[in-house]
Amino acid sequence: MITVARITxxxxxxxxxxxxxxxxxxxxxxxxxxxxxxxxxxxxxxALRRDAEAAACDIRFLGPQSNEDIRDLYAASDxxxxxxxxxxxxxxxxxxxxxxxxxxxGLPSVATxxxxxxxxxxxxxxxxxxxxxTESISQAIAELAADRNLRxxxxxxxxxxxxxxxxxxxxxxxxxxxxxxxxxxxxxxxGITA
Length: 194
Fold this sequence. Notes:
The strands form two sheets. A three-stranded parallel beta sheet has the order 1-2-3, with helices on both faces. Strands 4-5-6 form a three-stranded parallel beta sheet, with helices on both faces. α6 (117-120) links the parallel β5 (109-112) and β6 (127-130). It is built from ten helices and six strands; from the N terminus they run βααβαβαβαβαβαααα. It starts with a strand and ends in a 5-residue tail after the last helix. By secondary structure, the chain is of the alpha/beta class.
């Protein structure tokens, strides 16, 4: 499992850690969680690292990585997980381009239904979309980790969705311009009719 995001409260790393900790021992010990990205709020990062050390999970904080290394780490992973939530000011994840980057690499996502994330992760098509609760996230991780067929189906959807959301298509949608590309399943997600 891989997460690529700055380590901040709003990105929800602590929810993912709590969710992993709730998995049955046999499943939890089969999962390695790769955490990629720069440190954010120092107090949050320190607490997360302490909690990760105390958890019975294989968690590897790899820090910032080059685009090439991230691509290789995606290729070595089975699924992407980013469980954002609203911060104390009410800010939430915007569109969530990182979900599409993971999808383009053939990874389905476990994601939370916040902000613009449901436009990037289509529920039960490109990943599993859940409320930002430890129990829901734990169940979604368990489902993807245990079911290779589900991962393959969602990975195909994620790859297709990522290809369909080109800059040309997004600009056409945003500015009401004609789009000459082929309609795709992403049309439903962003309200386009062919």
